[in-house]
Amino acid sequence: MNQIERDKKAYDLAKEYLLQLNIQDVTPDLIEKYLCLSISKPRPKSIPEIYLRMLISAQNANMRAGVIGKAIGGVDKLSVVLCNFEPSKVLIKYNNGWNQLLDDIEKNLKPKGKIRRESLSIWPHYCQSILSAAQFINQFPTSEDFYRWVEFFDQDDRARSALPMILAREIDGFGFALACDFLKEIGFVNFAKPDVHLRDIFRGLELCSSKADDYEIFKAIIRVAKNSKVTPYNTDKLFWLIGSGYFYEDQNIGNNGRIGNHKMEFIAFANGRLK
Q1: Is the pLDDT of residue 81 over 70?
Q2: CA-CA distance, 3 to 133, in Å (whole number)?
Q3: Domain residues of the chain, as ranges?
């Protein structure tokens, strides 16, 4: 079995596996719904909307979502202190740094749980992400200008992977994987997030090397997508559904949309058919 055949077979087995779990209401149509970018989720239309989307992706690292979003009822609640997500106003308001921003968050939003002030703790680190993201996105006068810049990279297969590298360098705490997450979630289907689920599955199925980093896994996802004649977004979501076990738009499935992590079981299932 050559690489093209192996990639296509792994993709097909992922769909087969989800269906053979026999979870009530998990049908081929339901799976396809998650693999296509929803028309109900259009691209952000303004710089404040793009900035908010950046901050949502920035909190998707490690334990941040549980500590930040859950503590304040969602990242959108930050509009109270972030000038309705106008980056230019945020930079003026918080020109003294993250301590001032965190003071205002504590005062106005009263987050649940303990707020640690050490510079490497979650809240201070996230506040630094907020300010560096404002600094970055503020260089684009309009959303159209920002999208033209993204499309400059996206239209060239050789340049595409450089874009998340730039975002990771410019925005504190973003990293390559979160930059990819941001890009795919604002509608750029040629990007995929090399998160822990895809890393484990791709390594387990030998679709990449056992020591592949985020960049190498990203390239492997792109290759599998191309060989399966689908988008990287589609491939990302398919393997992510197996790893996360989370049908987030369908609370009637499993336990409020969750069917459990089936990552290791799928790897064993697929390997038996790929070798």
Answers
A1: yes
A2: 39
A3: 3-37+191-274, 47-185
Residue written as token pair 């003071």: 103
Residues 7-10: contacts with CB under 8 Å, at least 24 apart: 7/207, 7/223, 7/224, 7/227, 7/228, 8/227, 8/228, 9/273, 9/274, 10/205, 10/207, 10/224, 10/270, 10/274
Q: Contact at 8 Å (CB) between 215 and 227?
A: no
How many Cα atoms occupy the beta-carbon half-sphere of 201 within 13 Å? 31
Instruction: Tell me the pLDDT band of 66, cut-offs 50, 70 and 90.
Output: low
**Cα(186)–Cα(194) distance, integer angstroms:** 17
What mean pLDDT do residues 222-250 have? Answer: 95
DSSP 153-174: HHT-TTTTTHHHHHHHHHSTTT
Is residue 30 within 8 Å of residue 247, measured between CB atoms? yes
Ramachandran angles phi, psi of 108, nearest 5°: -95, -30
For 168-190, what is each residue's pLDDT tens digit? Answer: 999 998 899 999 999 998 999 99
Tell me which CATH code domain 3-37+191-274 carries: 1.10.1670
Please tell me the distance from the alpha carbon of residue 248 to that of residue 20, in angstroms, as a whole number. Answer: 20
Question: 174-199 b/e with 16+ CB inside 10 Å = b?
Answer: bbbbbbbbbbbbbbbbbbbbbbebbb
Q: Count Cβ atoms within 10 A of the Cβ of residue 225 and give its class: 0-12 exposed, 13-18 middle, 19 or more buried.
A: buried
Sequence-distant (≥ 6) Cβ neighbours of residue 231 within 8 angstroms: 189, 190, 225
